[in-house]
């Protein structure tokens, strides 16, 4: 077998096998792994691949595409507002590199126009279309420089949904990619359902053809590996098609995708969405795709706020990102859009840095670093919160009120307020009568409605 010198690893390596497209008569549904009538299985071949982080890591956004599929549609104004906040979160270095938009309705196109009018450098505005050539006219009409193209990759989609052979599907996708390249538009091929796809019999030969088109056109063809149902796993030695490490390594090594053209898109069906994305980063994928608050179809996508802190943890810097905007985004979702955020959702939930345990509360009062993950007041604009108990006193009650209702400046409620005193007296009677639990938010709200009704209006 011929040897070639790899300048990246600085070693002689065997020339890799060139994978050919496999054309089965029947779909390969990996029934040993996905029996459907039972929970899916995780298999191992005990093959390990090297960790190889890319030179630069980025985040990309699908809030206005996949995110919108999970909730009532945003208005144009809401999309513009969220995009502006996302740009501030991204910072001057454009860590949140691009955001994708539907192009099918007049409202979608109007949102794209309004966002483009902002003239913000990042995130870059990109489109999203299905893998049919006739849909490219939507991208061309909007004058976008990049578009996502749906390229369903598993036999579940190719055989059962599209009713095609693998070759027919590839030819359809390639026609759309060629149309984009001919217009100088960067195609981003979304390999849908890659964690149930025949990696060596379909994914690698298809992506090799895409890379050949990229070389001919002298334009990048980007690849998005889409873990559509959240089947990806990060365990060492896990076998294909579920291995996140194996997918990223294989796309770079066997399909010749440059790391900067590779992106990971995940779903949270099995609680693995963030670790899968960060593992993709560590094994060579330059971009991790997500949504604000992790909204998205079914169980949601990778939360961008989680990726922000994962990036900071892996790189040792926020690289200009402004995490205080995360709190603004969360409040906008709740106050303007009417979206209910789970109270204990990390970084954005109302109670994410609230402690109810008395011993923890005592520690926070003495030094908040004991029980707070980091300086949430400085980094997220949200100081840690202590739940009301028999040890809280009037100051603790006033603190809860001011925190819950986000009061500041002249609107702050003082511990000597008559309403605070009345609440304190009621709670003291309950604890004197034997109560041992902390006071819930619902109970505090009920007391505020009685004793400070002006706040609860």
- Give the CA-CA distance, first to last residue: 77 Å
Q: How many helices in DSSP terms? A: 15
Q: Which spans have pLDDT < 50 for at least 5 consecutive residues?
A: none
- Supply Rg: 26 Å
What is the helical fraction, as a range of percent? Answer: 25-40%
Say what the CATH topology of the largest domain is.
TIM Barrel
Number of separate strands = 12
One letter per element, helices H and strands E, the order comes to EEEHEHEHEHHEHEHEHEHHEHHEHHH
* CATH uppermost class of the largest domain: Alpha Beta
Overall geometry comes to elongated
Biggest sheet: strands side by side, in what order?
3-4-5-6-7-8-9-10
Q: Roughly what is the average pLDDT, rounded to an integer?
A: 94
Broad structural category: alpha/beta
The proportion of strand residues reads 5-15%
What is the H level of CATH, i.e. the homologous superfamily of the largest domain? Aldolase class I
Domains, number: 2
Sketch the major β-sheet.
8 strands, parallel, barrel
Which CATH architecture of the largest domain is right? Alpha-Beta Barrel
GO molecular function: transferase activity
Protein name: 2-isopropylmalate synthase
Keywords: Transferase
Domain Pyruvate carboxyltransferase: 57-327
